[in-house]
Amino acid sequence: MKYDPIKRKLGVVFNASPSLRKLFYRLLDILLLRSWHIRKAIKKWEKEVNGPQHILDAGSGFGQYEYYMAKRNKDWTINAVDVKEEQVDDCNNFFGKIGLNNAHFEVADLSKFVEKDQYDMVLCVDVMEHIEEDELVLRNYYQSLKKGGMLLISTPSDQGGSDVHHHDHEDYANDGTHSFVDEHVRDGYGVEEMAEKMKRAGFSKTEVCYQYGKPGKIAWRLSMKYPILILNTSYLFFIILPFYYLLTFPFVLILNYFDLKENHKTGTGLVAKAWK
Predict the structure, then answer these.
(1) Which residue has the higher pLDDT, 161 or 175?
(2) Residue 19, CA distances (Å) to 22, 94, 97, 98 in order
(3) For residues 136 and 121, what is the distance between their CA atoms, to the nearest angstrom?
């Protein structure tokens, strides 16, 4: 299953006007469980810091989290980097139109990007699973943080976070798909593995926990997996997508809420924090 072509199609639709783009961000915040966990972590960090903050979003994509942070805290400065030039240009254009001048986007390769002692927080959402030299990038994050700064990562776990389906896997037999595996260089991380890698990068304190437990896995299938499977069959299904979400939205909302509140012994995603 191809994810990027779907994202590009959605980008075209929701870029028709700033209002549609804002609606798109709101929908992502509601439907994507990772956004629930990231916003929860940002709110907690927000209570622990004072005054202006300098933040790096490493792998900014559509600019969803820049919009959330820049609008919420006008005295925060957000530097967002991404390897895709078209997304960087698109985000700079949109943020300029709506007058959010405390967020700026630039093209950068995270394996080479280091700005020593510049940032109070580094945010990295659904990026590490795409990077071969992950420990090098973690060291770059460490160097770029100020003393006491926090790294916040969301990434798939090794419990099926990339939804990798082998031929002997029950889900493969059911739907015959390989999902996002062609876009990831690894299936995901274990809790101890991620903690050890962050410590080797230099971080003195780490917290790693599972997200996407039982409620989250069901919510993800309803809100993301099944719609993308359908859209990979034909883009004509964009027409029925709003009706699909009208039916499934209440269930996704409830499932996301319970996943956010529970402590999971296992899950298909990780939230990892580390402090310099």
Answers:
(1) 161
(2) 5, 11, 11, 10
(3) 18
Residue 145, beta-bridge partner list: 119
Q: Dump pLDDT digits (tens) for 133-150.
A: 999 999 999 999 999 999
pLDDT value at 181 more than 70: no
C-alpha dihedral, 53 to 57 to 61 to 63, nearest 10° = 0
At 160 the pLDDT is 75
**For helices 226-233 and 241-261, what crossing angle results, to 10°?**
150
Whether 166 has a pLDDT exceeding 60, the answer reads no
pTM: predicted TM-score of the whole model, two decimal places: 0.87
- Burial annotation 199-208 (CB, 10 A radius, 16+ → b, else e): eebebeebeb
Which domains, ranges and CATH numbers included, belong to the chain? Answer: 4-275 (3.40.50.150)
- Decide: helix, strand or coil at residue 151: strand
Cα 47 to chain center, whole Å?
A: 22
Strand partners, 81: 58, 106
Half-sphere exposure of 115 (CA within 13 A, CB side): 16
Residue 236, pLDDT above cutoff 80: no
CB atoms within 10 A of CB 44: 11
d(CA 214, CA 256): 10
Q: Residue 248: CB partners within 8 Å, gap ≥ 6?
A: 222, 223
